[in-house]
Amino acid sequence: MAIKDIDQGEDITQIRHGIRKLCESFTNEYWRRLDRESSYPTEFVRSLSDAGYLAVLIPEAYGGSGLSLAAAAAILEEIQRAGGNGGACHAQMYIMGALLRHGSEAQKLRYLPAIASGELRLQAFGVTEPTSGTDTTSIKTFARREKDHYIVRGQKVWTSRAEHSDLMLLLARTTPKEAVAKRTDGISVFIVDMREALKGGMTIKPIRTLMNHATTEVFFDDVRIPAENLVGEEGKGFRYVLSGMNAERILIAAECVGDAKWFIEKASEYASNRVVFDRPIGQNQGVQFPIARAYAQMRAAELMVRQATILFESGQDCGEQANIAKMLAADASWAAAEACVQTHGGFGFAEEYDIERKFRETRLYQVAPISTNLILSYIAEHVLGMPRSY
Ligand SMILES: Cc1cc2nc3c(=O)[nH]c(=O)nc-3n(C[C@H](O)[C@H](O)[C@H](O)COP(=O)(O)OP(=O)(O)OC[C@H]3O[C@@H](n4cnc5c(N)ncnc54)[C@H](O)[C@@H]3O)c2cc1C
């Protein structure tokens, strides 16, 4: 039985229908082939871009459709629910927020209309480094000012979509950690033109992963970035990136809700039809209950995504809700994935059922873009007032 959507009004319903229609052209076989070949869904991203879906959060004044975060969340949820993977392009929606909120008017005019039209792709977000991990303020990549340029040296890891992006939002230190009063100071955000950087000291090395995610290592060997590509004020970049994290968490949570719905629909349908011992396996409560539990978890997560979105859209603090939504949704999609594999028995492992692919894909969300442990420590410290643990 198809899972019913929460009513969010006619506009969101239209968006859901639009995405479902678009996704019909990108069949399970399409995603399976890309997974097998570890290749990027160029045609899919192009279609989304051409239809304007990747520009929903860009204001109309800059060529976008100026829609709400709820619209962006519905788009990503529906992509996952259709069996696809929004990871190929989701970053453009939230990375762009740093430029929108903190960029100069000249930067917005230069980049946003081109991003909205699909002429420029802003898909790469260079934050994580091999030695810093989750501790972002320990990044070592350094941007040294030299007249009207910054010279960047260092390395990023897990920079997804770098090979399929014209621009990267880069986080680099501009003052050493030892020389700042607060460790969050002295970090800056830059727009890197990848096409120029590749000609001048930047190299990209793909990382093969459990699932198809186009992720990479990026090396900066004295790459020159024009000073005009600094976003906002020098040294304030950590705050700029943090301010976009809630949107990222909400959108990733929406993807997890979409994954959970896909797994639950598949599992309940199979459980109702697969006959073993002369009766449908779904007649056994041992088969029903994990699916029903995952459904309940998904519904709770979906409500939290909704609440976080409403707070975000009204400009209120939503750190607690966005973090909880991300954790509950990632847990729900993982529980649904596990139940779906178990319900399908041996067939859950067969490539042609797509379950093993989606199972591998949804596992990521326990770790990235923020791990479950770090969300729990956020709740403990910032919501419950317990001592900082790190
Ligand atoms: C496929 C993929 C795509 C990614 N894409 C991007 C991207 O585009 N851009 C980007 O910048 N990054 C990206 N990342 C990086 C991702 O955000 C990090 O992997 C994630 O933040 C965790 O960092 P880490 O891998 O260094 O783990 P670590 O920080 O080394 O942590 C390892 C484990 O220890 C736990 N841990 C660490 N510290 C604590 C603590 N104080 N308390 C409790 N537990 C703790 C963590 O929860 C985690 O489970 C991606 C990662 C993957 C796998």
Notes on the structure:
There is one protein chain. The chain has 390 residues and is of the alpha+beta class. It has three domains: 10-117, Acyl-CoA dehydrogenase/oxidase, N-terminal domain (Butyryl-Coa Dehydrogenase, subunit A, domain 1), CATH 1.10.540.10; 122-237, Beta Barrel (Butyryl-CoA Dehydrogenase, subunit A, domain 2); 239-383, Up-down Bundle (Butyryl-CoA Dehydrogenase, subunit A, domain 3), CATH 1.20.140. 49% of the residues lie in helices and 15% in strands. A hairpin with a 2-residue loop joins strand 9 and strand 10 (279-280). Helix 1 (10-24) packs parallel to helix 4.
- CATH fold assignment of the largest domain: Butyryl-CoA Dehydrogenase, subunit A, domain 3
Which series of helices and strands comes N to C? HHHHHHEEEEEHEEEHEEHHHH
Low-confidence stretches: none
The largest beta-sheet arranges its strands as 1-4-5-8
Mean pLDDT: 97
Coarse shape: globular
Strand content bin = 15-25%
Number of strands: 10
In helices, the fraction of residues equals: 40-55%
In short:
The chain is of the alpha+beta class. It has twelve helices and ten strands.
SSE blueprint:
Blueprint: H1 10-24, H2 28-37, H3 42-50, H4 69-81, H5 90-102, H6 105-117, E1 122-126, E2 142-146, E3 149-160, E4 167-173, E5 187-193, H7 194-197, E6 202-207, E7 215-226, E8 230-231, H8 237-273, E9 275-276, E10 279-280, H9 285-313, H10 319-344, H11 355-363, H12 372-383
Keywords:
390 residues; alpha+beta; Butyryl-Coa Dehydrogenase, subunit A, domain 1; Butyryl-CoA Dehydrogenase, subunit A, domain 2; Butyryl-CoA Dehydrogenase, subunit A, domain 3; 3 domains; four-stranded mixed beta sheet; four-stranded antiparallel beta sheet; 49% helix; binds flavin-adenine dinucleotide
